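Assess this today:

___
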Amino acid sequence: MLFANIDLLDENLDHRSGQWVGVRDGRIAYLGAEPPAGEEAAAYGEVYDGRGRLLIPAFFNAHSHAPMTLLRGYAENLPLQAWLNDAVFPFEAKITPEDCYWAALLACAEMARYGCVAFSDMYYHMDQVARAALDAGLKLNLSDSLLAFKGEGLADLPVDGENRRLLRDLQSAGDGRIVVDCNIHAEYTSNPRAVADLAAFAREEGLRVQVHVSETRLEHEECKERHGGLTPVRYFDSLGLFDVPVTAAHCVWVDDGDIDILAERGVFVAVNPASNMKLGSGFAPVPKMLERGVEVCLGTDGMASNNNHDLMQDLYLLALLYKGSTGDPAAVEPKQALRAATRAGALSQGREDCGLVAVGAKADLCVLDVTGPSWAPMTNPLVNVVYAGHGADVRLTMCDGRTVYHDGAWPTLDVERAKAEVDARTKRIVGEL
């Protein structure tokens, strides 16, 4: 595809007007203020008229539970522990592998609709989530959840064999779109032996790790009681988990010492503002993290605690809520927020050549319609994306140079069937409870 005469946000998220962007072999092969010369222009194939459009890097969802699309609208108005133990866990016990596939496929459709091309997922039946991502044409960092309540080591747990099977069967599938990570659900659902074993396994295999950290005050304080005053961050660090690349989700209740460790150890923090507010968990100290050099990325979390995969809503919240909560109108700047939703999310997944509009980068792109009333005047396009844009403004989503959403159509999947399947499967599970 050749994007013709289109405004864009470049690799620094700075605005450029009237650009030509050529996509070939899954990458951005040309970018300039003039069209490529004659025969080269024709080699790109379809020409996309860029008038009234803004090209930006596609979004990277750094923390999700895609199969939880089945639980959208379920388990409402509950604090986290009651939400998990009394509602979510009993529902999840009824979920089959095929349920996971259809729910993840619907999640992929929703993410593509809203300009997102990649997601980091923690759940079960992850081969089915990978199947959905491959069918949809998206990227996925998958991780099967480690749960250990009785002092078991990694070798004693089913997740050990599952991790090895996922590595054997799925690592780098879809021309590298599928990446296998490790996963520790949380401190309160694991034990020190299992954590240390998984950290060693990830180190030996060169894998990344996803983990929930300090999502609630209760989780944070009970961890200190269990482990001699160690916070979840200090606990995981003491067991060697941060010796490998880690994406720590939430980090709402981390203290100043925790933030220093996260910065020193290069931990990515996936913040989830919508989910944390909906569950009453609080606000991650993002301004402090950014100030101290922590790489902050952005996630939606699952659909029982956010209810949609429109990352532009989380982007808006990330840029706005800290101004109100700190009294500082410059607490999180628009460019910092948009970087969290794009480049930082890609880096958290180990995708070094993704998340930016630059020659040589993977063609992971999002086209926004900027002709609506909320976009005028276009005083600062970056600011408009963050504060005035909506997921509904997305007109085209491209992953690795392949169109996965275009003006109400999903070329890679049957969204109506996915909706019907998920609706029927949720009704079945609710009926079994």
Remarks:
- The chain has a mean pLDDT of 96.
